[in-house]
Write a structure and sequence with these properties.
128 residues; mainly beta; four-stranded antiparallel sheet; 0% helix; globular
């Protein structure tokens, strides 16, 4: 059973930084995985923030390019999202997501529907 647990959210002033973490458990040993961060603000659809494949190929949503960085550390089973220069428009619930474990995972999967495992979400608030 794959489980994803986010941490690191909170409140910050505009221009500040936060780093989100997502601890991954339950992936079969030796499997590859593609993961991502998505966010959803009240009254809006869930949108992609950043995705990463097993080979560290990354893709970003247009609104966060140059400000956010996705990375992963397979040695401690953790996905990260470094968020810099935060803006009020970045305020949302942030979700860690993962595709099904596989023997080969390459490419940036940008649609939420392409991910089957989700964390519980973590709130990010940005004040102006």
């Amino acid at each position: 059973q794959v489980q994803l647990v986010e941490s690191g959210g909170g409140s910050v002033q505009a221009g500040g930084s936060l780093r989100l973490s997502c601890l991954v458990s339950g992936y079969p040993y030796g499997s590859q995985y593609c993961m991502g961060w998505f966010r959803q603000a009240p009254g809006k659809e869930r949108e992609k923030v950043a995705v990463i494949d097993n080979y560290d190929y990354t893709r970003y949503g247009d609104s966060v390019k140059g400000r956010f960085t996705i990375s992963k550390d397979k040695s401690n089973n953790t996905l990260y999202l470094q968020m810099n220069s935060l803006e009020p428009g970045d305020a949302a619930m942030y979700y860690c997501a993962a595709r099904s474990p596989t023997t080969y995972c390459r490419g940036g999967y940008l649609l939420a529907s392409q991910y089957i495992y989700w964390g519980q979400g973590i709130q990010v608030t940005v004040s102006s």
